[in-house]
C-alpha cells in the first residue's frame, strides 16, 4: 500500500511552500474527480496531496463590469452554473461547466482542475479560450499570467512547474453586444467525453452586424485544446452572414488535427468541427444581438 500525506493549507503562501518543498512528489487536490481516479488506477503516485479547497483566492467568483471576472481555480462547476453573473455575462463558459459529468460530479469538479488535467477533450477549456481567459499561476519564483490556449503542452502535460499552482482565471468583462457560446458532440449520453467541442465569443457592431472581435476555441481535435486564430481573424470586420460563417468553419477545420480513436475517425471529427463552428457562431451572434450589458 502506498502511503500519502494529506495536507490542508489555509493560505496561498502555505500551499506554495508545501508544493515547492515536495516538488514532483506532491499534487494539488481541487475537486479530485480526476486525481482520485488516477490514484486508484496507479497512474499517479504522489507522496503528498495538497487540498487547496480551503484557500479563499481559489474558491471565489468575483465579477464587475469595471474589472471583469476572477474565477477561482477550485470553484465547483455547480457554483458556476448557479451564479447569476456567470449565466448572464458568460453563458458559454457556464454551459461548458454544466456539461462536466453528473450533478454530483459538478459539485466537486472545477474549471481549474479541468484545465490542469491536461485533457484535449476538456469541455471548459475551449470556452475559456474563446473568452481570452488568462490563468494566474503562483509558485516559489513568484506569479505569472498564462493565456489558456498556451497552458496545455501535450495530453496530460501543462506549463505548471514543480511547486506552481493555478490560482484563478482572469477574464475581461463583456462589451456591449458581446456574448459567448459552447457546443459539443457526444455519441451516447450527457456524461460522455466530447468527440468535438467548440467555443466561440463574438462582439458585434449592431449598426451593420459587423464583427468587431471574435475568438474560437476547439477541443478534442488535437493533442491540446486549440485557439483557431485564422478562423477567428477571418470574421473581424466582416458582416456575419452565411458566407463569413462558412469560411470561418472551413478555417477551423484546417486548424484541427484530430486522430482516429474509438469515439470517432479523424475525418468525421473534421466534419463535426465545421458543423459545430457554424452552430456555435450563430448561437453566440444571437446572444450578442440581444445583449446590451453596459
Short key terms for the protein model shown above:
single chain, 294 residues, alpha+beta, Uridine Diphospho-n-acetylenolpyruvylglucosamine Reductase, domain 2, Uridine Diphospho-n-acetylenolpyruvylglucosamine Reductase, domain 3, Enolase-like, domain 1, five-stranded antiparallel β-sheet, four-stranded antiparallel β-sheet, globular
Characterization of this structure:
This protein is α+β, with helices and mostly antiparallel strands and about 290 residues long. The chain has 3 domains: about 5-50, 2-Layer Sandwich (Uridine Diphospho-n-acetylenolpyruvylglucosamine Reductase, domain 2); about 55-170, 2-Layer Sandwich (Uridine Diphospho-n-acetylenolpyruvylglucosamine Reductase, domain 3); about 180-290, 2-Layer Sandwich (Enolase-like, domain 1). Helices cover about 35% and strands about 25% of the residues. The chain has 11 helices and 14 strands. The protein has helices at about 10-20, 35-40, 75-80, 85-90, 90-95, 105, 110-115, 125-130, 230-235, 240-255, 265-290; strands at about 5, 25-30, 50, 60-65, 70, 135-140, 140-145, 150-155, 155-160, 165-170, 180-185, 195-205, 210-220, 225. The strands form 4 sheets. Strands 4-5-10-6-7 form a 5-stranded antiparallel sheet. Strands 11-12-13-14 form a 4-stranded antiparallel sheet. The chain has a 3-stranded parallel sheet with strand order 1-3-2, covered by helices on one side. Helix 2 links the parallel strand 2 (about 25-30) and strand 3. The mean pLDDT is about 90.
Amino acid at each position: 500500500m502506498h502511503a500519502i500525506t494529506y495536507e490542508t493549507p489555509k493560505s496561498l503562501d502555505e500551499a506554495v511552500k508545501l508544493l515547492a518543498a515536495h516538488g514532483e512528489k506532491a499534487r494539488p487536490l481541487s475537486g479530485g474527480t480526476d486525481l482520485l481516479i488516477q490514484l486508484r488506477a496507479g497512474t499517479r503516485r504522489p507522496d503528498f496531496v495538497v487540498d487547496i479547497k480551503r484557500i479563499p483566492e481559489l474558491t471565489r467568483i468575483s465579477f464587475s463590469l469595471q474589472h471583469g471576472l476572477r474565477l477561482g481555480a477550485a470553484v465547483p462547476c455547480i457554483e458556476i452554473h448557479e451564479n447569476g453573473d456567470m449565466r448572464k455575462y458568460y453563458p458559454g463558459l457556464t454551459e461548458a461547466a454544466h456539461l462536466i459529468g453528473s450533478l454530483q460530479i459538478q459539485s466537486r469538479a472545477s474549471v481549474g482542475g479541468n484545465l490542469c488535467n491536461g485533457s484535449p477533450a476538456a469541455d471548459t477549456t475551449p470556452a475559456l479560450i474563446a473568452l481570452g481567459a488568462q490563468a494566474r499561476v503562483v509558485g516559489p519564483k513568484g506569479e505569472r499570467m498564462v493565456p489558456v490556449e498556451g497552458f496545455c503542452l501535450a495530453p496530460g502535460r501543462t506549463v505548471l512547474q514543480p511547486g506552481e499552482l493555478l490560482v484563478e482565471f482572469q477574464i475581461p468583462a463583456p462589451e456591449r453586444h458581446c456574448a459567448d457560446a459552447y457546443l459539443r458532440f457526444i455519441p451516447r449520453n450527457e456524461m460522455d467525453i466530447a468527440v468535438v467541442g467548440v467555443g466561440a465569443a463574438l462582439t458585434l457592431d449592431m449598426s451593420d452586424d459587423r464583427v468587431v472581435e471574435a475568438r474560437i476555441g476547439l477541443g478534442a481535435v488535437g493533442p491540446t485544446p486549440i485557439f483557431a486564430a485564422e478562423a477567428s481573424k477571418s470574421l473581424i470586420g466582416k458582416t456575419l452572414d452565411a458566407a463569413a460563417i462558412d469560411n470561418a468553419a472551413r478555417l477551423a477545420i484546417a486548424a484541427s488535427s484530430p486522430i482516429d480513436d474509438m469515439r470517432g475517425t479523424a475525418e468525421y471529427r473534421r466534419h463535426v468541427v465545421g458543423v459545430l463552428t457554424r452552430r456555435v457562431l450563430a448561437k453566440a451572434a444571437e446572444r450578442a444581438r440581444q445583449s446590451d450589458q453596459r
